[in-house]
TrEMBL record, chains A, B:
Name of this chain's protein: Sugar phosphate isomerase/epimerase
Organism: Nonomuraea zeae
Keywords linked to the UniProt accession: Isomerase
Pfam families assigned: AP_endonuc_2 (PF01261)
Domain Xylose isomerase-like TIM barrel: 22-270
Domain of life: Bacteria
Any one Gene Ontology molecular-function term assigned to this protein's record: isomerase activity
InterPro entries assigned: IolE/XylAMocC-like, Xyl_isomerase-like_sf, Xyl_isomerase-like_TIM-brl
Keyword Isomerase: yes
Amino acid sequence: MSLALNQWTTRRWSVAEAVDGCVRHGLEAVGLWREKVAEQGLAQSVKLVREAGLRVSSLCRGGFLTAGGLPGEDGRRAFAQALESNRRAIDEAAELSAACLVMVVGGLPGAQPGEPLPAAGFSRDLAGARERVAEALAELAPYAGERGVKLALEPLHPIYCPDRAVLSTLGQALDLSLAHPEEQVGVVVDTFHVWWDPRLFEDVARAGRRIASYQVCDYLHPLPADVLLGRGMMGDGVIDFTPITRAVRAAGYTGDVEVEIFNAEIWAADPDEVVATMKTRYEELVLATG
Amino acid sequence: MSLALNQWTTRRWSVAEAVDGCVRHGLEAVGLWREKVAEQGLAQSVKLVREAGLRVSSLCRGGFLTAGGLPGEDGRRAFAQALESNRRAIDEAAELSAACLVMVVGGLPGAQPGEPLPAAGFSRDLAGARERVAEALAELAPYAGERGVKLALEPLHPIYCPDRAVLSTLGQALDLSLAHPEEQVGVVVDTFHVWWDPRLFEDVARAGRRIASYQVCDYLHPLPADVLLGRGMMGDGVIDFTPITRAVRAAGYTGDVEVEIFNAEIWAADPDEVVATMKTRYEELVLATG
């Protein structure tokens, strides 16, 4: 396992700055975000990571596949748009030779991430939303496979079920992945999202080589008012990383370990200091599996 | 199934006022809280519910069994105190002929409900905390059985795992209950806590007659800054009650359906209006199972 910087941890850094930062701090891999890649330019981003000799541990993110659950023409149009957007994300992941494209599958149909529920054009059909995800994957997995891209289904903490991901547990993501070849669809184990799950260790073992990405950060308590920003540096929250890392390793995962932190204080700090702290905490708390 | 008022929904009401309110609104059962019973007096509370002809659908709450996970003498003392407090709760439930004693099992050892993590005297050992709950249940279940009280294990939404309940899914609660006779230990299905769970319907069916209490309220989105108060009146949030009620009924549950809402606006409103709204929404959204 090797430590990687997910560029959202040092959010103010461009792709060029994140690549420089990784090299400066001796990291071998970087997780990129589509918005940042678009700002840098895709071709330039590819050139930067190749010349720096970095692996792209993930591209974040595809997904948001559930709006097709809205009735009628609105639903059909939203589903087609989601598929098209995801095909572009797959193309970009292929260009970047990213180890996977992280998929945040979307919440209840019509709910917008981080926004209050809309008064109309919203569906409470959670089971239906989950079916839409399976349908979209059936379209996207072969497309990804043809381009050598692995889709990595990310279960999100149930607090994000209304608006960001109706995939709420590792077991659920794993079950969904099994309909597709291992090289096309895998799962993400992100400690923030899964630390509480009583079936975690059983499902990590069951996932085995389906684990496409291992992401680490801590779960803060209490959460801040904007729950999206409840991710903390390892050691600042409630998670015991040791047994989780041990389980992921025992399942056969040998890829990069991304640190992905959404946190207003960390975003305000000097990115070089953040990366230095990240390296220290990773050695002390994530790698130290006894 | 019959609608019941959990008295925390009309928090400003004493036991006497809640009993009067239930009678006035034609409800047959009330869920009581230990604090309120203590204020009214246990004997007087028993007298009030009996004379009104009400069932006590639950007593809230026992639990907080995990502090025994702290090291050394602190842990031993905390464990003994938790057992003693729960024996008193069981005694009260027996006096009130409550259908069950709701158990909120407690969070990580040393974490206090709703408080920031303490700097010291805190444990991240989640698996160990879950073992302490099983150990405490082994002590308490026979004591409850001798007094005709059923302990109802309540899985709480994973957002409460750090500080309130290391029981996070219905399946986990059910598995824990199976070590004990059905009349001693059951589970709570509370829509707020379990609506997101991809295994919900499978586990409700598996629970069958272990379901000791069905509680309903909605899940608000976004949650308020104090996540404890994210419960809403049915219809105000993201939950589709129809399939859940149908599943609970199909599992064989024939008990009372408590509405339990922690919500600052609802607590500030006229309790009689809250109960009237509760009745209407219950008929429209919870009972209407198609």
